[in-house]
Amino acid sequence: MSYEIAVLTSMSIAILFALSLNLITGFCGQVSLGHAAFYGIGAYVAAMLTKADLALPIALIPAAVMAGLVGVLVGIASLRVRHDFLAITTMGVGFLFVGIVRKQDALGGEIGISGIPSVAFGRPGLLLLALVCMVLFILLSIYIRRSWLGFAFESISDDEDTARTFGIDVSKFKLLAFVVGTAGAGIAGGLYAHHIRFIGPDSFGFVESITVLAMVIVGGIGSIAGVAVAAAVLATLPLWLQFVDDYKLLIYGSLIFITMRFAPTGIAGIVHTLWQKRQAK
Asked: Which of 18, 95, 96, 246 is most exposed by smallest CB count within 10 Å?
């Protein structure tokens, strides 16, 4: 039973992490190749606070706030760049985070932080907390998608210049997307740290950013259900097939290429097309 709980916890955290990037990339069209940095910020903040005897549910709040604040800074720096230049900028943030952590003894340096305390009620308690956070972020994503905020994000994703002509404050909404998305990643990181109970710089490198990007693209950019399904599958794939963990960058990079080339709308688009064909019969 403990193995099943661990798998479900991994899935819940991965879904939350993927949906946080989906809000930035899928909803607002801002490509990020350094999203694992915000995941790492949340993990380190939550781990250090719980080691100082703060309860995890409370520690997740400053973890989200810190990740969101850094997201604001990255968002401000990214306002003048788009597309490829934005991707390169965010990728640089990811490398910068890993480099800083490696040099900070207070953060464990190269060795990382071990002995992260377990939460109340052990593994089942962590699973419950992860499920609650995941469901809340799903509901938030659905609310944003259906609200005027979702309309603004979609307009910016389609064409920033056109959005401006309709009076949409592009800078404000791009920053808002970064804040909410990175805060969500911070919460996911805090949960991940207490799930694994050890974190180090390599846990939040470029490979993790590519992994979460693969979840969004394979699931269908902008699709809440599609991204959730893809995240659940890709997060547990290394548990069933050991070789996947050894060739993560190759496999997930290939998935991104194949999906973008042959099925750019991802799982969600394929399911939607098949459903339309069935309805037409």
From this structure: 246
